[in-house]
Amino acid sequence: MASTSHPHLTRLANAVLQPGFVGTTAPDWVRRRIADGLASVVLFGRNIESPEQVAALTAALRAENPDLIVAIDEEAGDVTRIAARTGASWPGNLALGAIDDVELTERVARDIGRRLREIGVSLDFAPSADVNSNPMNPVIGVRSFGAGTDVVSRHTAAWIRGLQSAGVAACAKHFPGHGDTNVDSHHGLPRFTADADDIARTALPPFTAAMEAGVRAVMTAHMLVPAYDTELPATLSPAILGGVLRGQLGFGGLVVTDGIEMGAVSGPYGIAGATVRAVAAGVDAVCVGGENAEQATADELRDALVRAVLDGTLPEERLTEAAERVREFAAWSAGLGRDAAPAPDASDIGLVAARRAVRVHSGSGAKLPLTADPHVVELSPTMSLAVDGATPWGVAEPLRALRPGTTSVRVCEAELAGEADLLDRVALAPATGRELVVVVRDAARHPWMSRALTGLVSRRPDALVVEMGVPAGDRVGAVHLTTYGATRVSGIAVAEVLAGAA
């Protein structure tokens, strides 16, 4: 075993891993690993039941190492871990970019940081600094501040200032920019085909803005960027990590991978192979455990790093450098939390922002607010693995709180494919003589959803349509409302508009 034969290398290997784990209390194997050099852990929705429980969990982990990095992927918006069971209390990046008030963005991020700091988190894998220039992007979308480099740069910097002012370290992602892609890297290898000049002009400025705002962690993208490297994805590319991020942009902080088990890199190389290649290429910390959270996986990756040093695949100096950079970041982030000003009381800034993000486009014959209890039809897509599929979303429930007679149905693609007259039966028939609200999420990106929406509006041109994803295409419906995200507060905000309670 590496842990007994090469204790020094084992401690170095443990230091560069950021494993997740199963359970809501600290597992014994994680405690033992911290004592043997593990410097980071990552929390996921499965580890979270309540603020009090998470605070106790992180305190137990830090009993082994006060500077332990406790990381989480809390973008707020649609990608939430602390509110995976309820839906986020803050709108996501696209809503903030649509409002385009950098002070508001900073206040929202400060509030997120307050909540994270209270439960013992020291590193947040956010914000997304990706410019979502491809509206068909299957994995970024509402996670981006928008399709324009300037707006993304402004709000990336503001979000980082806000979060870090609350004592939690930010992490700009996904370098060198995942916005102009059409493949989800959880499943395959995206290609960013712009030339180097275009990348420098459109995708890199938000990362420069992040660095100027004080970010000390950057997360890599599992995607191929032929302008820089024709063979290796960014996470595994010395040309991108050393040449562009470290060299061209001058970044001296922590480089962390996106989940190393994601298909874009684990498919071709295996999890262990991708881990070794990433560290050799210049990565300092390897995030793992979103899907592979067993002790056996952490053991496998630790031992693979040790073997790679012994067989010459990974220079010991590179592993030592990575481990030292993790320790430096751990000490800095711990100090950030200790030195932050006292957090203000809990606020409703998330709902305030969600209300400001709602846009209403009225057509001919539009009627708003609703004059009676409506029937709500929610067309539900299959989400990227970045979004917890169990997180509640939609308009029906918050609208029912305001108009108790509201009825609703949720329909997915498979159900429509299996029953040709389903919409007639569950959507149109119950709405006879009543107002109809149709809720979609990224309709332009899902042909089945676009067809269903078109069919419903052709039969009911008086329908009110709510888009809770990236707005694109025609604004169909007598009234078309956009929320720029499907968070809990976004649902409340648009329900208030529909019911006349705004």
What does this entry show, briefly?
With 502 residues, the chain is of the alpha/beta class. Helices cover 42% and strands 11% of the residues.
Task: Provide the descriptors you would attach to this structure in a database record.
three-stranded parallel sheet, NagZ_Beta-hexosaminidase, TIM Barrel, six-stranded mixed sheet, alpha/beta, glycosidase, Rossmann fold, hydrolase activity, hydrolyzing O-glycosyl compounds, 14 strands, single chain, 502 residues, 19 helices
Describe this structure in words.
Keywords: Glycosidase, Hydrolase. One of its GO terms (molecular function) is hydrolase activity, hydrolyzing O-glycosyl compounds. One of its GO terms (biological process) is peptidoglycan turnover. This is Hydrolase. It comes from Streptomyces longispororuber. This protein is α/β, with parallel strands linked by helices and 502 residues long. It folds into two domains: 338 residues, Glycoside hydrolase, family 3, N-terminal domain (TIM Barrel, Alpha-Beta Barrel); 142 residues, Rossmann fold. Helix content is 42%, strand content 11%. It has a six-stranded mixed sheet. A three-stranded parallel sheet has the order 2-3-4. Helix 15 links the parallel strand 10 and strand 11. Helix 2 packs across helix 12, helix 2 crosses helix 13 and helix 7 runs parallel beside helix 9.
